[in-house]
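Justification of computing resources. Each target in the renewal requires a structure prediction run like the one illustrated here; the chain below, 217 residues long, is used simply to show the kind of job we budget for.
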Amino acid sequence: MTIWWDNLDAFQQTTFVIASIATVIMFIFLVLMFFGLHDGSFDGGIDSAGDADFDPSSMDHPDFDASIHGDSDIFNHDSFSSFSGLKLFTLRGILAFLSVGSWVAFLLNDNLNIWLSIFFGVLSGGFASFLLAYAFKQMWKLESEGNVHYENAIGKTGTVYIKVPANKHAKGKVNLTLQERYIEVDAITNDPEDIIPGSEIVVVGVESENTIIVKRK
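Resulting structure tokens:
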């Protein structure tokens, strides 16, 4: 190993070190991401300083889904720049660029001069970064298509599951069908009387990211 290393010139040693480090870091991040360990660790999407109560119905909202899947994920989404919706200059993209580009430059340097090796390394690294950005964009797009958008519930009817107190005094819960899903969601009402379980309601607005406004039908 020592003899092999000593036979490399300074350029090959440099590209080998950069490629190795970038590849290892990218592999670790990808493993953590696909095992779900990046949630909260890398994206900071869940505010631990906020309310400790967890509302399962909030999982139906796209904002919740975005925070889990990396809307502020330094590895997946936060970019210094973007092109046509592709976030290229992310930590993920930089690692892909350094990893692929350095490996290509390292391997080509046996047959090409330094400048051609660098040229093809930069091209390869840029292409790898572009492909990775495109792949992740398509992945997030597929996930987001399954999110429930409560704005689409306005005008729809449903049934009260847990009493909805009058005059927005507190939240109740209603069941309704939205985007071909049967969901349960927090609800408030401006009606002067409580809406009891089993009553039919109509959605008239959206109060917050996980609460709708209803009235008795």
